[in-house]
Amino acid sequence: MNALDRSCNKPDDLVETAMKNTVAILALLFTMSFSQNSFAQQQGTPNIKECTNYFMHYFNEAVVQGFQIQELLKSKTIDGKDVIFYIDLSNRLEKTLGLVLNLKDLYYLYGKTTYCFTKDEKKYLIDRITNISDLLNKITTNDFEINLSGDEKDIRARESDNIMRFRERVERLRAFIETSLPIFK
User: Which of 94, 92, 65, 74 lies closest to 158 in space, CA to CA?
Assistant: First the structure.
């Protein structure tokens, strides 16, 4: 009877052993997936979701500034000479909005793809992101033409504030892009 009991327990032992092995493998995979994420965070690298959120936050801030500029253009507080400056700033804001949406799409699609990117595809993405960062730099480094009219101190302060907000926002975006590039490596 002992031999019969042992033979009946063998399938149960096999199932139990297989389950233990499966649990061990799942635990190993779980640990590896979190270790890659923690390694990226140790390096100060944001993940894809944080990147897309940051890009949308930039977009929202730029849109708010764009609305403020449009309100200034509609108001009677600025003269014809100042309109040129605000139209230029508005155009620069629109360019950066298009570029940041392009970045958001690149990061989002990279995060949602189910196949492994080849080295050439990753290189293309990195080159594209670097080119966008360079374009953002060119947009901010080009000089603004400031034509003053009316009360020069008030106008100069308002224009300087708009330029400063615009440039700081773009520089923060460029710094964020640099910290997020290791995602693609």
Answer: 65
Rounded to two decimals, the pTM is 0.70
CB contact at 8 A, 165 and 65: yes
* CA distance linking residue 170 with residue 137, whole number of Å: 8
CA atoms of 73 and 77, how far apart (whole Å): 8
pLDDT tens readout for residues 20-43:
777 666 666 656 655 544 444 556
Question: Can you tell me the distance from the alpha carbon of 28 to that of 18, in angstroms, rounded to the nearest whole number?
Answer: 15
